[in-house]
Specification:
This protein has 291 residues and is mainly β. It folds into two domains: 4-194, Reeler domain (Immunoglobulin-like, Sandwich); 212-290, Immunoglobulin-like (Sandwich), CATH 2.60.40. The protein has one helix at 4-27; strands spanning 53-56, 62-66, 72-73, 78-86, 92-101, 110-113, 119-126, 129-136, 148-156, 165-174, 184-194, 212-216, 221-240, 245-248, 252-263, 271-279, 282-290. The strands form three sheets. Strands 1, 3, 5, 7, 8, 10 and 11 form a seven-stranded mixed sheet that branches. The termini are far apart.
């Protein structure tokens, strides 16, 4: 019994230390994958902001400024993003932002830091996709003026046309009570599109690398997924390695995201085949192995 006070003191000290570390971890950046994007969570979760109210598409709270005035991008160019938050009576803020292709919700472009003391890059894996986000540092949680803050970062567009892209971002307006309760999470998104080329008659596939082709062995079907930047006459061709056509689709007007299935007869032998999508003046080719 004489040792009890010492034991209690040690437990209390350890608890205080753990709580302090826990608070610092939350302040020093969000949990990776808390943007509210497709497949992501938000900060309203256990060990973060467990009872936070989540507000989707808030009006007058979140504003994302994209340095291209018409919200378009040119492959390979770098742009400035400014995320602003207005919330009266809030003195401590947090955020996380990521960029995904609309076509398949995968990470696209390259996020970068402009305010290294206030912001940082974090990563998480979703399936086979490595998603990069920008979030706050401890110094970036303090309001810049009463009820207002902003964070600046940069984003370099992918080297090829990736079609429509959406920035997903979550902001946290806290009550600064050093607990994980009583806060509000605001979820927003901002879309951009590729800039038009000088040849307005040309049709571009959303991403020359975005055509996915695979073979369903059980159903003996070739399945194609792709997207179109604007309406176009589209035709699908499949040939063997010698150039002999085994399928020639009918040209038809299509737009937006597409999923096409080509049923193969049993007589087609195993081997490598060529799938070609022709859309207006543009075309893209993929190889596929049928086994």
């Amino acid at each position: 019994m004489k040792n009890k006070p010492t034991f209690v003191a040690v437990v209390l000290a350890a608890s205080t230390l753990l709580f302090a570390n826990y608070t610092v971890l939350k302040t020093a950046g969000s949990h990776p994958g808390s943007t509210g994007a497709p497949g992501d969570l938000t900060c309203a979760q256990t060990s973060c902001h467990s009872d936070a109210q989540v507000v989707q598409d808030p009006v007058g709270i979140n504003t994302l400024l994209f340095s291209s005035s018409d919200s378009t991008y040119i492959p390979g160019q770098t742009y400035t993003l400014t995320l602003q938050v207005v919330s009266s009576h809030t003195s401590k803020f947090g955020f996380e932002l990521t960029a995904l292709r609309d076509f398949n919700n995968t990470n696209t472009g390259t996020l970068g830091i402009l305010e290294p003391i206030r912001t940082q890059l974090i990563n998480h894996t979703l399936g086979t996709d490595l998603r990069t986000s920008v979030t706050h540092e401890t110094a970036g949680t303090v309001s810049l003026s009463p009820g207002f803050t902003e964070w600046k970062m940069k984003w370099t567009a992918p080297s090829t046309n990736a079609g429509p892209i959406t920035f997903y971002y979550a902001t946290n307006c806290t009550n600064n009570n050093s607990l994980e309760t009583g806060d509000i999470i605001y979820l927003s998104s901002f879309g951009i599109k590729p800039a038009l080329t000088t040849n307005t008659d040309k049709v571009n596939l959303d991403d020359i690398n975005g055509l996915t082709v695979f073979f369903n062995r059980d159903l003996r079907e070739i399945i194609l997924n792709y997207g179109l930047y604007k309406p176009a006459q589209v035709k699908t061709l499949v040939s063997d390695c010698k150039g002999v056509a085994i399928f020639e689709g009918v040209s038809s007007l299509k737009s937006g995201e597409q999923s096409e299935k080509i049923k193969l007869s049993p007589e087609y032998t195993k081997g490598t085949y060529i799938v070609r999508i022709i859309a207006g003046d543009d075309a893209v080719t993929r190889k596929i192995i049928i086994d």
